Sequence to fold (342 residues):
Amino acid sequence: MRLADTADLERWQSFVDSHPDAGCMHHAGWFFVLRDAFAVRPKYLMAVDEHGAIRGILPAYLSRSWFAGNHISSLEDGMLANCASAAEALLAGARKLRDDSGSEYFQLRGGTADDEACWSVSTVRTLIPTDRPIEALWGSVKKKTRWAIRQNQNQLIAIEHDPTLATFNDFYLAYATRMRDLGTPVIGLRAFDAVRTRLGAARLRLYVVRHRSRLIGGMLCIINGARWTDYFAAVRLVPEAPFANYLLYWHVIRDAASLGISRLDLGRSSPGSGVHLFKRKWGGIDIEVPYRFYPAANARPRDMGLQGMKQKKGLAQRLWSQLPTAAANRLGPLVRRQLPFI
Fold:
């Protein structure tokens, strides 16, 4: 096991592109997003064999956050390994990196792992199998959701695919405003731009939602082979069109199916949460993806990964949702500089 440097990233990406279980967060471009747009240090671990061939990868970063403490965290898709020995080497390397850096804990967000974590949090990913006829997909959608989609078709809502990403910054503004409404500090426009630059337009698919021609939201999907991942999505609430987000999701599902995409990944959520229940409306399947925490031997007790705060909408979230939009958009990126993914 060793740390990858920038010279290794082309081989890293080849490994990702050839692996059937690779996720969008395994993309090598995230190394530069983390390095250039956040106040963290990318720590990309590789397991290699005696010939130097890559057998497993673990994209991670070192954060010295005031809020979450000094920690090592993997990216959302966790580790990707061809064999058990590679997974073991990566996990051992991550623990050593935790100790060598003086971090309080290592957080593993998915992928193969052992049972030595002292604490884990249950999360699920909701996947829509889109390799089916449109009629079958429509039939899988819950009845009330189909009704909501039909209502929006008559409320001056338009869903547009933006192949050139010309509306990228406008989408960010709508996304940031909605995140404020939900009480969540938003990442900065600089980080959004880094995603566009480092992942590249060929791996991104942007949909925008317009109400009477005004952009009110959208969805940015990350492409990984025959899989799309809904990674950034938000639609501002409009009284005249309360279910505009329903029309957006159905449009994306239909497009994925028509273009031969095998599955649409709606991302991670906490089981039973409002977000999870919304994702379940679309006839998908849930895959359990536990978050595992490996604290250092001398670590003091704390809310690792801010999981306690995220389990319920507390005072901090309610206060944040009351901030003026301009203030939230300035403060949010400062908070998120050391917390790329929360």
Summary: The mean pLDDT is 91. Residues 84-100 form the longest helix (17 residues). The first strand starts at residue 2 and ends at 3.
